[in-house]
Amino acid sequence: MTALPPPPATGCGAAPVLKQRGQREVFCGLTGIMWLHRKMQDAFFLVVGSRTCAHLLQSAAGVMIFAEPRFATAILEETDLAGLADAQDELDREVARLLERRPDIRQLFLVGSCPSEVIKLDLSRAAERLSQAHAPHVRVLNYSGSGIETTFTEGEDACLAAMVPVLAETDADDLLLVGALPDVVEDQMLGLLRAMGIENVRCLPARRADDMPALGPNTRVALVQPFLGETLGALTRRGARHIAAPLPLGEEGTTAWLAAIAREMGVDAETFARVTDAPRARARKAIAAAAATLEGKRVFFFPDSQLEIPLARFLTRECGMEAIEVGAPFIHRDIVGPDLDLLPAGPTISEGQDVDLQLDRARAARPDLTICGLGLANPLEAEGLATKWAIELVFTPIHFYEQAGDLAALFARPLRRRAALRLEAAE
After folding, report:
1. What is the separation of C-alpha 158 from the centre of its chain, rounded to a whole number of angstroms?
2. Domains defined for the chain, CATH in brackets
């Protein structure tokens, strides 16, 4: 088995961070509902917003043919915005109609939007009142999905953080895995941990309300997503302890993440090797197929999902790419610090965005591949730069060993497409 390069003598953990505040290119936090409503099978997400919010959700989700979706928009009309109607009374009435029609709902999230926040609609008071009215069958919580000051993955962070205060107390010695993953990927993760003898494992979010984890001073927390800063803060305030580790992306990240948990849970080295050696070998073989295209290529990350730093670590150390700039909307060092330490020194590390200045840097660098939001991809493609939509990396299963080859292929595909187009043009 070919070994990965050793940790760099000088990583990016202590590198200066370029912080810029200006015009940003972001996607709305309501988008998180698209994966959360599929994950939590008896939850419903009621956005309190405008017709624009409703159109966004329908466009992002596509057409739900085989099942009634578990999200909707309570549309604020002109009378609500002008204060001519009692929005709280109207919300109570809409929630009552919804729960009567959908008795399968066990958790109801009232999701704030730009319009509801602009008119200062107090959804926390509404959630408390509605929880009392519909207990014990339905628990009502609220969080903000507004895109005014946030990026789109913070919708999940806000949702999970809202759940932490209502988790039951426990003194059990539990491992809590935090972050929404596709069920098949979550099952792979749990299978690896069970094979090591770690049985007392819970997930947040749970698939059903009855399976919600409990929390206490003996709870140890491992994150599977880097954008959960508020959730991690809420968990640690409840006494839980964070297991710091690289994110489980690629073979190296997955192995390091599992190793940190194994050390914490007392798993011996022989057991760890027995469980991980075979999937590690499969992951490396799968990555190598795409790395042949990526080797030596230069990559530039615009800030979008907060996955940028772990992905840059994966591409540079496992795929042989060179990172020019790694931009992230926010850098939570408690979460991505281990990935920054592994990222070889050299790239500019930037936090926040002044999109015009960053576009100037990207154009000057002429990278082989640019990772950016939807709004920038087409213009940059027209200028001759190969791009990858950052949002695709959130909707696609990319975590853990069995998805490592797919993750590398996502980055190789735009380069192969560009090479094929050039060949066709030459002919």
Report:
1. 12
2. 17-24+280-426 (3.40.50.1980), 29-150 (3.40.50.1980), 175-265 (3.40.50.1980)
Max Cα-Cα span within the chain: 70
Contacts 24+ apart (CB under 8 A), 103-106: 104/42, 105/42, 105/43, 105/44, 105/70, 105/138, 106/42, 106/43, 106/137, 106/138, 106/139, 106/208, 106/209, 106/210
Residue 257, sorted as left (phi over 0), alpha (psi -120 to 50) or beta, turns out to be alpha
- β-strand partners of 371: 301, 388
* DSSP for residue 307: -
pLDDT in tens, 267-293: 999 999 999 999 999 999 999 999 999
Quick check: 291 and 404 in contact, CB under 8 A?
A: no
Structure confidence at residue 4 (pLDDT) = 56
**Which two three-digit tokens encode residue 356?**
């015009």
- Rounded Cα–Cα distance for residues 303 and 27 (Å): 11
10 Å CB burial of residue 135 (0-12, 13-18, 19+) is exposed
Taken in order 25, 31, 32, 35, the sign of the CA dihedral is negative
> Other CB atoms closer than 10 Å to residue 55's CB: what's the count?
11
What's the pLDDT at 84? 44
Output the pTM of the full model: 0.92
Q: Is the dihedral of CA 296, 310, 189, 179 positive or negative?
A: negative
Q: DSSP string of 257-285? A: HHHHHHHHHT--HHHHHHHHHHHHHHHHH
Strands in 387-389's sheet, in edge-to-edge order, are 17-21, 348-353, 322-328, 298-301, 369-372, 387-389
Using DSSP bridges, classify how beta strands 387-389 and 369-372 pair: parallel, antiparallel or unpaired: parallel
- pLDDT for 32-85, tens place per residue? 998 999 899 999 999 998 888 888 887 776 655 455 678 888 887 755 555 545
* Strands of the sheet with 175-178, listed across from one edge: 201-204, 175-178, 220-223, 241-242
Give residue for tokens 């409503």: 37
| Coil vs helix vs strand at 322 | strand
